[in-house]
């Protein structure tokens, strides 16, 4: 099995800049990983923002479904178009 990048969706749960934004992003990632061990997260930095996106969803409907599950915990979360990792089966 090979992971390949394909167009899809993720849910962004964190987006912040400032002195402690890296620490907050890492802390958010840690808590997310504890609560959702089966969902991958992706932490990125693009001046001046740290952002945390989660999941690898093929469709907007899948992303919205997961967003509905976590919106109480992450009220500012939203779905975004992104290149996602999608496992390809190799015969």
Describe what this molecule looks like in 3D:
The protein is of the alpha+beta class and 91 residues long. It has 2 helices and 4 strands; from the N terminus they run βαββαβ. The chain has a 4-stranded antiparallel beta sheet with strand order 2-3-1-4. β2 (41-46) and β3 (49-57) form a beta hairpin. The radius of gyration is 14 Å and the shape is globular. It starts with a strand and ends with a strand. The model has no long low-confidence stretch (mean pLDDT 93).
Mean pLDDT: 93
Secondary-structure content class: alpha+beta
Number of helices: 2
Shape: globular
Distance between the amino and carboxyl termini: 9 Å
Biggest β-sheet strands, sense, barrel: 4 strands, antiparallel
**Poorly predicted ranges:** none
User: Which strand order do you get reading across the main beta sheet?
Assistant: 2-3-1-4
Quickly list its features.
91 residues; 4-stranded antiparallel beta sheet; 45% strand; globular
Which helices and strands appear, and what pairs or packs with what?
Elements: E1 2-16, H1 21-35, E2 41-46, E3 49-57, H2 60-70, E4 78-88
Antiparallel strand pairs: 1-3, 1-4, 2-3
């Amino acid at each position: 099995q090979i992971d390949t990048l394909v167009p899809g969706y993720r849910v962004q749960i964190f987006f912040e800049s400032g002195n402690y934004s890296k620490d907050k992003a890492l802390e958010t990632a840690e808590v997310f990983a504890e609560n959702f061990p089966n969902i991958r997260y992706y932490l990125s930095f693009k001046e001046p923002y740290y952002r945390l996106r989660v999941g690898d969803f093929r469709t907007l409907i899948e992303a919205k479904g997961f967003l509905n599950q976590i919106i109480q915990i992450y009220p500012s979360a939203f779905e975004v178009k992104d290149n996602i990792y999608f496992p390809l089966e190799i015969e």
